[in-house]
Design a protein that fits this description.
A 5-stranded parallel β-sheet has the order 2-1-3-4-5, with helices on both faces. It has helices at about 20-25, 30-45, 55-65, 85-95, 130-145; strands at about 5-10, 45-50, 70-75, 95-100, 125. The protein has a single domain (about 5-145), classed as Rossmann fold. The chain is of the alpha/beta class. Helix 4 (about 85-95) links the parallel strand 3 and strand 4.
C-alpha cells in the first residue's frame, strides 16, 4: 500500500495566481497541486490536499486524516507565526512534517521570520517558490522510507 501524504495550505493560498507575483509567483494553487500529484505519482505515493482560511478547520483536517497518513507537507501561510493549535495537532498526529513557504520568510519582515513549526519539522523549504512543495515531497518520502 503506498504512503499517503497530507498537503495542507493555510490562509490566502487559495488566492495564488492573483497575489503579488514577485513574491508568490504566477501559479494557482490548483497548478501547484497538479505538479505535486505528478511528482507523487512518480514516487509511488498518494497525496490528499486541503486548504482553509480557518485555523480550526486545519486542526480538524489533521485530526480526521492523520490516522490514514504517513506524513504532512504544510504551508500555514499567515498562521506560521501563531498556529500553535495546528502545531499541537501535528505533534499529536505523530507524523513527520515539512514546512513550506513560497517566499523566503527569513528575508522578509521581522514578524514573518518566526515559525512555530520550524523546531519540530523534519525540514523547511522557504524561498523556492512552487518547487518547494516538490522538494518537500522528495524529502518527506525519503524520511518516511528510512
Amino acid at each position: 500500500m503506498p504512503s499517503t501524504i497530507l498537503v495542507i495550505n493555510g490562509p490566502n493560498l487559495n488566492n495564488l495566481g492573483k497575489r503579488d507575483a514577485s513574491m508568490y509567483g504566477t501559479k494557482t494553487l490548483d497548478d501547484i497541486q497538479s505538479d505535486i500529484s505528478t511528482k507523487a505519482s512518480s514516487l509511488g505515493v498518494d497525496v490528499k490536499f486541503f486548504q482553509s482560511n480557518h485555523e480550526g478547520s486545519i486542526v480538524d483536517f489533521i485530526q480526521e486524516s492523520s490516522a490514514a497518513a504517513d506524513g504532512v507537507i504544510i504551508n500555514a501561510g499567515a498562521l506560521t507565526q501563531v498556529g500553535y493549535s495546528i502545531l499541537d495537532a501535528l505533534l499529536d498526529a505523530g507524523l513527520p512534517f515539512v514546512e513550506v513557504h513560497l517566499s523566503n520568510i527569513h528575508a522578509r519582515e521581522k514578524f514573518r521570520q518566526e515559525s512555530v513549526f520550524a523546531e519540530k519539522a523534519v525540514g523547511q523549504m522557504a524561498g523556492f517558490g512552487p518547487s518547494g512543495y516538490i522538494y518537500a515531497l522528495d524529502h518527506l518520502v525519503t524520511v518516511i522510507n528510512s
